Amino acid sequence: MLLSIVMTAGLLPLFAVADAPEQPTYCGNEEHTHTDECYGPILICGKEKGEGAHTHSDECYADAIQLLCGKEECEPHAHTDACYTEQEVLTCTLEENEEHTHTAECYETVKVFNCGKEETEGHIHTEECYETVRELICRQEENEGHVHTDACYETALLCDKEEHIHTEECYSDKSADIENWTVWKISVRDAELNGDAAHDILEIAKTQVGYESSDKNFIVADGKKKYYNRYAHWYTAGSNSYADWCAGFVSFCISYAKVENVPLSLACQAWTESLGNTGMYRAAKAYTPKAGDIIFFATEQKYPGIATHVGIVAEATEDTIRTIEGNRTRRVAYYEYAINDATILGYGEMPTKPETDENLSRQEIIEYAFTNPGNSIQLLKLLSANGTETQSIADETVTEGFVSIAPFGFSVRAIVIKPDATDVDYGRKANKSNMKE
Fold first, then answer.
1. How far apart are CA 411 and CA 405, in angstroms?
2. CA 364: distance to chain centroid?
3. What is d(CA 98, CA 275) in angstroms, rounded to the nearest whole number?
4. Is 257 in the same domain as 296?
5. Same structural domain for residues 228 and 376?
6. Is residue 419 part of a domain?
7. What are phi and psi of 287, to 5 degrees?
8. Which of 89, 199, 275, 327: CA 20 to 30 A from 120?
9. Which of 274, 328, 268, 293 is closest to 201 using CA atoms?
């Protein structure tokens, strides 16, 4: 495979953050890793030290009368005869039987105490029998309250800093190298457009050679840097300015060349499909490319036959093809390949206008009329097969309705009348099924 790069820009290696501590960061965070000093105990018991403590106060007591004399209160009592009754008490030790029957001599009269009282001088409580004392009424025990133990604490983060380790993206300045439409317009101002789609696309591409995506403004996705670039910003209106941009670059060139009716895309494979739907896609083996065409590559071995890169044909010979591409590196540059390079998948054929003042066949006139309705071909002479004039048709102008003015076997001497650029429409293909032969 022949592949030589005419102009390249080396890929910038991912730098190690540790090797460049002096570089400014833009993440807005201080680098910090939590250490043991960042942690400490926090109280979780929900209680204050000493909570629930109780010391008896005056409110805990009430005055109470307490008996001190130790005596029971009672009336004085001295036994009298009324306190006794006489009873006959058996004093005989013999049992009654046939030989002995108790007689009066067997009994003795005794006095039995029956008042139920003891003799006492009696006692009636007086003031001297009592004293006033303070009685505890709060029903609480004195204590020092809650004492914190290990169970009252847990270890928690006390540091007020967020843990943050600088990554590569922390060194990205998201405000760097941002462009707008004014910058883009200035970037293409040296292009010399002539209304020919393929020519004008290439002219715009040439003005972009040397552009580099930002090396200061980037994101890191899947471990790889993706740089801010003009073309992804333009295509996505700033919503994804870090996208892969080979297709964005080509779409930018087509748009600024004012070529209409050519589908644009930011995805290579999808672009081949949309071009195919409009009849503009050509397989590499069945087409001879020309300057200004779009060239598609299948660069990923794991995706055979799938377009993964795109550029613009700058020049094509029988053996080699020279291109202008973006996003092979960070720079828009020229590249050169063998015409049969295995990675070349196909082309998007860009329309061109016919040469002026030449003989056009009937079919060429019809093709041009349908393909480029914005340009008119003024018919000057209707020529026979041997080139002799058969009819002057200088007042006729080719339109989409022109079909039968030039019979088969005849050609037309014609020139192209180019309208204002705003009227040019190069993108629409002829609808062959509507043509009459």
1. 10
2. 54
3. 156
4. yes
5. no
6. yes
7. -150, 140
8. 89
9. 293
What is the per-residue DSSP string for 312-353?
EEEEE-SSEEEEEESSSSSB-EEEEEETT-TTEEEEEPPP-P
pLDDT tens, position by position, for the chain (437 residues)?
Answer: 333 333 333 334 444 444 545 789 988 898 899 999 999 999 988 898 988 899 988 888 888 888 877 777 777 877 787 788 888 888 888 888 888 888 878 888 877 777 777 777 778 888 778 888 888 888 888 888 899 999 899 999 998 988 898 888 888 999 999 999 999 999 999 999 998 999 999 999 999 999 999 999 999 999 999 999 999 999 999 999 999 999 999 999 999 999 988 999 999 999 999 999 999 999 999 999 999 999 999 999 899 999 999 999 999 999 999 999 999 999 999 999 999 999 999 999 998 865 544 445 555 555 555 555 545 554 444 444 444 444 444 334 444 334 344 444 444 444 444 443 333 332 222 222 222 22
**Domain containing residue 394:** 358-434
Cβ(323)–Cβ(201) below 8 Å: no
Domain co-membership, 207 together with 282: yes
Burial degree of 306 (CB within 10 A; 0-12, 13-18, 19+): middle
Question: Which residue in 185, 186, 204, 187 sits closest to 291, CA to CA?
Answer: 204
**How many separate domains does the chain show?**
2
What is the rounded distance in angstroms from the CA atom of residue 430 to the CA atom of residue 40? 79
- DSSP code for 305: T
Say yes or no: 198 and 299 in one domain: yes
Residue 65 belongs to a domain: no
Rounded CA separation 338/307 (Å): 18
Does residue 328 sit in the same domain as residue 388? no
| DSSP string for residues in 393-430 | -TT-B--TT--SSS-TT-EEEEEEE---GGG----PPP
Query: What CATH number did the domain enclosing 224 receive?
Result: 3.90.1720.10
- Whether residues 387 and 335 fall in one domain: no
Residue in this structure with the two tokens 């613009």, named with its chain if needed: 312
Using the 3D structure, point to which of 348, 380, 402 is the last residue of a domain: 348
**Does the predicted TM-score (pTM) go above 0.85?**
no
User: Using CA atoms, how far apart are residues 339 and 164, in angstroms rounded to an integer?
Assistant: 52
